[in-house]
Amino acid sequence: MTENRFDPSNADGRWQRAWDAAGTFIADSDSDKPKSYILEMFPYPSGRIHMGHVRNYTMGDVLARYKKMQGCEVLHPMGWDAFGMPAENAAMEKKVHPGAWTRSNIEAMKEQLQRIGFALDWTREFATCDPEYYGHEQALFLDMYAGGLVYRRSSEVNWDPVDMTVLANEQVIDGKGWRSGAEVEKRKLDQWFLKITDFAEELLDGLGDLKHWPDKVRLMQENWIGKSSGLEFAFELSNGEKLPVYTTRSDTIFGASFCAIAADHPIAQGLTDDPAVAAFIEECKRGGTTAAELETADKLGFDTGITAKHPFTGEPMPVFIANFVLMDYGTGAVMGVPGHDQRDFEFATKYKLPIARVVASDPAQADAPMGGEAEPGDGVIVNSDFLDGKSVEDAKADVINRAEAGEWGKGTTVWRLRDWGISRQRYWGTPIPFIHCAKCDIVPVPKDQLPVTLPEDVDFETPGNPLERHPTWKHTTCPKCGGDAVRETDTLDTFTNSSWYFLRFASQPVDAPFDPVEVAKWMPVQHYIGGIEHAILHLLYARFWTRALSSIGKFDVKEPFAALFTQGMVTHETYHRDELLTPPADYVGDPANYAVRIWLSPDEVEFKDGKAFGKASGKPITVGRVVKMSKSKKNVVDPDNIIANYGADAVRWFMLSDSPPERDLPWSEAGIEGCYRFVQRLWRLFGQVDPSATGEDKALARKAHQAIVAVAEDIEALSFNKAVARIYELTGAAEKAAPSESRNFAIRAILHLIAPMMPHLAEEAHELLGESALIADAAWPDHDPAMLVEDEVTIAIQHKGKLRDTITAPKGAPKEDIEALALASEKVQRSIDGADIRKVIVVPDRLVNIVT
RNA sequence: GCGGGUGUGGCGGAAUGGUAGACGCCGGGGACUUAAAAUCCCCUGAUCCUAUAGAUCGUGUGGGUUCGAGUCCCACCACCCGCACCA
User: Fold this and answer.
1) Is the bond preceding A513 in cis, omega lying within 30 degrees of 0?
2) Protein A535 CA to nucleic acid B82 C1', in Å?
3) Which of A716, A779, A757, A717 is nearest to A70 (CA)?
4) What does the alpha-carbon distance between residue A220 and residue A217 come to, in Å, rounded to a whole number?
5) Which of A104, A339, A502, A815 could cysteine-pair with A842, CB 3.0–4.6 Å?
6) Could you check: is the Cβ of residue A292 within 7 Å of any atom of nucleic acid strand B?
């Protein structure tokens, strides 16, 4: 019996050092065990580990430790996604170098991770801002360039006219620059692109093989890639030019009443001699570049005076320049069919263009008036000459056939997916390894000159790209002609860093990005875990890089992540009070609304009689909704404090308990206390193994065997909350049982079942039980299949669809016996009350339903 | 605007179309203690009630399929997430 308590402040560090000293979690790529690569999305070194990280890495850790117990050689690495804007923001605000800031964050966060006891192979750690890493990335980029997957073209960015700098979408707030407050404009710059569209078909088809990805993520990627088929054809214009357009609704061609072209369409650009056109195009440049902004903006158009000739009717239709047409999609021009497209409808309503019905629910409705909105649905074609009476699908095919026969158009496939713009006008990223020479144009940096490293001596005092302003860095000589030349000053999008890091974890030679033979030993990643916010971009880019590298012969891997799991966020209540301010003299609203909202952190709030008050002010506090932990709402709980108070295992257990892993997990103080109590409960139980105990406790032994199987299934399905519930049940049963051999078996089983989840407690108890080896190296307990089957089952008896009674019967009892037992029940007879029995449904071992 | 998701007691949630609420938290009552902490035991969806029993209602809303629906189908409501330069 142990009366003492489990002391995490002592045990945690001791076992972490023991694992470290033994090299327990160092992955051996030469091992002949089956390999298992467990990976969580690596963190951005923002400064501190937050609860979201803890949740993410705890899940991966349980899997990694479990796989090891199942006899796998496990690769479970960790590193740092270390390039990005926050480092530059810190440089501007705190006057520290982005590299220094990042390095010190990494150091602090690594220490935090180590305190949680994760089973990580730290020998493979790297940061993407290491010149070795980004140098290899530059080499891969040059290989892709050589493979024809990289090109340059002009593309729009958010431009801050006051700070004279490019803004990221998140730096645009209500259409204004976040620092300057100036109205943001769209501006065109020459930028680098990766040809992800070459892989659109492959990336789409490949989704079908990703059986262990969530359906929702595959669906989101499918919609993002957005394959559509339709008709491309050219209108003849009144000015003699041709206007190619693309439509998915060629069936509605007789309903077209105008054409619309993008503001940066060549035809629009050709009309800028007219000051009115130039002014309108200027107008279209206002506002940001996000899809949400573009699609919710008021529809604006400018009638060019040019007309387009309808290919069937020959009728002239006005050509507008319109802000809702995207140059990047299709041909940058559309035919407007207001009756059956909502955007066209709004546009036509605004500019008083005809709105014709060409699809109806049935031919008799051909002249039904249009309602207040477009009708994009299915139906029968009407008012359309030779198409009348056809279905939408038949009409599409007919129009495409006629266009192809008449050689004025053809059926085509169009993708919503656009090529990936990777140029960033920023310092803290991978320098793009190209040189601009006046004579030789654009020249790749020779591989023996890689890495192109970032200069250290930069300042962030003046706005713009520090690489551009640096006095010497960009000046170099042309590798081709030897003349004066300048380096590319754009850096790569940080998503490129996270598009191949999993390969570098698997294999890290000095002279190459990776060794294909080593990579093949580990890839694909068996379980990849991270946030749902990465469902599209990061995951699509990583899939693309893998296929692109494969296509240029770097290795033979098609899909990087065999199974994907997207975990929910860690949330917390919010606390705030609204402080009234004195409104300025010209304020017209209700003075009661002129207030500033002050957010309080959980430790600034105290509760009295169920009401919240500010600790410092004593003022009443409003308890707000439960939302993702964020600095701005101050509802953040620091893992360090929690670990100091309760130990790593209680926190890990909390992360796995209660909420299903794909859903949000609300943090609560009461919850972590409950977990801590359970840690101590287990500690007491582990101390109760009694070597002198004899005898069998069949019911308990059966529960233990069942739990060994069920917990394994739950962990493999990542249903940690269910595994936790089963362990609670078995623990309760073991506590209540009298000493016996079976009880000793059950307690040892529990010890092994919790080992992946609460490894420090498990090691400590394992040692207490006289074991000299690490439980981290132990095997998952065996079970006896004969012990999984129950001999008796409880059968529910329903009448009129409601439960009336339950009976106990031997498992597998014949239907007739069960029916007889059910009808013999007094409660059932009372419910039936003499009514005629029409039917009795018997589900063996489950239930009887009596229908009267 | 487009795309995706979620909705079950006071709270987190469980439930191959088959006993709704497992398990945990909170709360209530009790035991132990000089006292407290810790620990242990019991109760804990709502309503009715003639109360150790029994009945009715109950899984966001409204319909439907079925002997039987939290689960399947249709329509709707609310909230959350993503939208290409945040990571």
Assistant:
1) no
2) 8
3) A779
4) 5
5) A815
6) yes
pLDDT in tens, A146-203: 999 999 998 888 888 888 888 888 888 888 888 888 888 888 899 999 999 999 999 9
Average pLDDT of chain A is 91
For chain A, the residue count is 852
**A190: phi then psi, degrees, rounded to nearest 5:** -75, 125
Distance CA A104, CA A851 (A): 72
Contact (Cβ atoms closer than 8 angstroms) between residue A501 and residue A545: no
Beta bridge partners of A843: A847
How far: A801 CA to B48 C1' (Å)? 21
Q: Tell which strand B nucleotides have any atom below 7 Å from a protein Cβ.
A: 1-6, 11-16, 18-20, 22-26, 38-41, 54-57, 67-69, 80-87
How long is the CA A759 to C1' B33 vector, in angstroms? 35
Angstrom distances, CA of residue A120 to CA of A37, A405, A525, A649: 11, 64, 15, 16
ipTM exceeding 0.90, yes/no: yes
Residue nearest to nucleotide B81 (CA to C1'): A533
* Distance, C-alpha A688 to centroid of its chain: 45
**Across A208-237, average pLDDT:** 91
Between strands A570-572 and A665-666, the pairing is parallel
Locate A519 and state its tokens: 């990579």
- Written as six digits, the tokens of A324 are 């809702």
Among chain A residues 79-108, those with CB within 7 Å of any atom of strand B = 81, 83-86
Please state, in angstroms and rounded to a whole number, the distance separating the CA atoms of residues A548 and A533. 24
**pLDDT attached to residue A179:** 81
Using a 7 Å CB cutoff, list residues 157-176 of A near strand B.
Answer: 157-158, 166-171
Residue that is written with structure tokens 């006289």 in the block: A770
Q: How far apart are CA A733 and CA A673, in angstroms?
A: 22
Q: Which of A463-472, A565-574, A585-594 has the lowest mean pLDDT?
A: A585-594
Task: Name the region of A648 (left: φ>0; alpha: ψ -120 to 50; beta: rest).
Answer: alpha
- How does DSSP assign A645-714, residue by residue? HH-HHHHHHHHHSSS-TTS-EE--HHHHHHHHHHHHHHHHHHTT--TT--S--HHHHHHHHHHHHHHHHH
Least confident interval from A350-359, A546-555, A615-624: A615-624
Q: Residue A75: is it exposed, middle or buried by C-beta count within 10 angstroms (0-12/13-18/19+)?
A: buried
Give the C-alpha separation, A492 to A425, whole Å: 9
How many angstroms from the chain centroid is the CA of residue A184?
28
Q: Give per-residue pLDDT as tens, A47-63.
A: 999 999 999 999 999 99
Model-wide pTM > 0.90? yes
